[in-house]
Specification:
This protein is mainly alpha-helical. It is 56% helix and 2% strand. The termini are far apart.
């Protein structure tokens, strides 16, 4: 029925359609809910990347607001954004990877979720996962901290070391996140499980504790690496900011315990010897910033 209404729209006189508010208004009046008007892909892939990043950040804010109000957020827009990001990676990988160096001290949580989603999606591509699996793991990165919406804010923003009781509360956020994500329509079990397990560590000495014989899925290992890298390269109240190259060197020392060595190796190769955001000294003695 809605396709029929779309065909009616396509045969409409353009000038008359414009006078009546345009195509979007037409579909709204016709009660079309499953077809939306979207802009054509930007010719400048870097401009498109900036737009998608901005849209993703707004979507994180919306999802977390819904979750804090006790409602189950919708996942359809987040999934579409991950698909758009996947298309951008095919055209120009550095367009989105460069944006992960956006660090907003006051709005850390929102930028962090977008950045982890982008890094997880990119790593899924570097690991040659199928397109659907890439989107699923990118979505897991995007939603990995949604459980913190039920964690007291004074614990999340505490500048000092957490007490044992506070740390026990903080460690519940992957479980709370899993409870929220698994109820979101269109989100796969793979994505929900990756959210649940992203702090389990490669040696399973993290949290939450898995059942005997159970192993963390590959998505969890991917999100764990993306999460740690973005956290380490961001200035936090309780942590200094590491240079991207320095962060990778520290993470490499934790391969086999915190991180899957094979996946981490692919991540390092994906970012390159001097990752985007690195400060370098050139042979001319000039200081430069790696942008792509």
């Amino acid at each position: 029925g809605e396709i029929g209404k779309l065909l009616e729209l396509l045969f409409y006189d353009p000038d008359e359609l414009q006078r009546k508010g345009g195509a979007e208004a037409f579909l709204s009046r016709m009660n079309v809910k499953h077809i939306e008007i979207r802009k054509l892909m930007d010719t400048d892939v870097y401009e498109k990347a900036r737009r998608v990043y901005s849209d993703a950040r707004a979507e994180v804010i919306s999802i977390m607001k819904e979750s804090r109000m006790g409602r189950v957020p919708k996942a359809d827009r987040a999934i579409r954004l991950m698909q758009e990001m996947s298309e951008i990676f095919i055209r120009e990988r550095s367009a989105l990877l460069g944006l992960t160096m956006i660090k907003d001290y006051d709005e850390y949580t929102f930028n962090h979720c977008v950045n982890v989603g982008i890094l997880s999606l990119a790593l899924g591509g570097a690991l040659k996962l199928k397109p659907n699996a890439q989107v699923a793991v990118g979505l897991a990165g995007f939603l990995h901290d949604i459980g913190k919406t039920v964690t007291p804010r004074d614990i999340i923003s505490k500048p000092g070391i957490l007490t044992e009781e506070e740390w026990d509360i903080m460690k519940l956020h992957p479980v709370e996140g899993w409870r929220i994500v698994r109820l979101m329509e269109g989100v796969s079990e793979f994505t929900a499980t990756s959210v649940y397990q992203h702090h389990c560590k490669f040696n399973l000495q993290g949290y939450p504790t898995l059942k005997e014989g159970e192993k963390a899925n590959p998505g969890a290992h991917i999100v764990a690496i993306a999460d740690c890298y973005d956290s380490m390269t961001t200035l936090r109240p309780y942590q200094k900011r590491f240079d991207p190259k320095e962060a990778l060197e520290i993470m490499a020392r934790r391969a086999g315990t915190d991180f899957d060595p094979a996946i981490l190796n692919v991540f390092v190769r994906m970012l390159g010897l001097y990752p985007i955001g690195s400060l370098v000294r050139l042979d001319t003695n000039e200081i430069a910033l790696v942008t792509r």
